[in-house]
Design goal:
Radius of gyration: 14 Å
Distance between the termini: 30 Å
Number of strands: 6
Structural class: alpha+beta
Largest sheet: 6 strands, antiparallel
Strand order of the largest sheet: 1-2-3-4-6-5
Order of helices and strands: HEEEEHEEHH
Number of helices: 4
Shape: globular
C-alpha cells in the first residue's frame, strides 16, 4: 500500500487529524485526542493499529506481516509491514477496526462533538 492512499483513507474518517508528535518519521492519525494509526515513514513502510486483545493474537499467528505493536502495548496494538502481501481491503478493515475501538473509548462529550460536527 502506498503512503498517500493510506493517508487519504485515514483522513476520510470523522474527527481525524494527522500530526508528527514524536519525530519527523512517525505520522500519527488521531480521532479526537486519541491515536488510532501510527505510520513509520522509514523504509519499509509500517503502521501500528489498535486491536482487541484476542484479535492481536490471531492476526499475528495468521499473517507473517503482522507483528506485536512496535513501541506500543503489545496486548492491544499490532504492527503491519506494508510490503504488498496483504490486500488494501484487509488493511482498510483493520484501520476501520482501530478507529472504531478508539472512537468508542473517547469520553462521551468528545464523541458527541465529533458526531455532531460530521452529520
Amino acid at each position: 500500500m502506498e503512503l498517500e492512499k493510506l493517508r487519504e483513507y485515514c483522513l476520510t474518517k470523522n474527527g481525524v487529524k494527522e500530526d508528527f508528535p514524536f519525530d519527523n518519521e512517525t505520522l500519527v492519525f488521531k480521532v479526537g485526542s486519541k491515536m488510532f494509526c501510527l505510520v513509520s515513514l522509514e523504509s519499509p513502510l509500517r503502521i501500528n493499529l489498535k486491536c482487541e486483545p484476542e484479535d492481536v493474537i490471531n492476526l499475528i499467528e495468521e499473517h507473517e506481516e503482522i507483528l506485536p505493536g512496535y513501541h506500543m502495548n503489545k496486548k492491544y496494538w499490532i504492527t503491519i509491514k506494508l510490503n504488498g502481501k496483504l490486500g488494501n481491503k484487509f488493511i482498510f478493515k483493520l484501520i476501520d477496526d482501530s478507529y472504531n475501538l478508539v472512537f468508542e473509548k473517547l469520553p462521551k462529550k468528545e464523541r458527541d462533538l465529533i458526531e455532531k460536527s460530521f452529520r
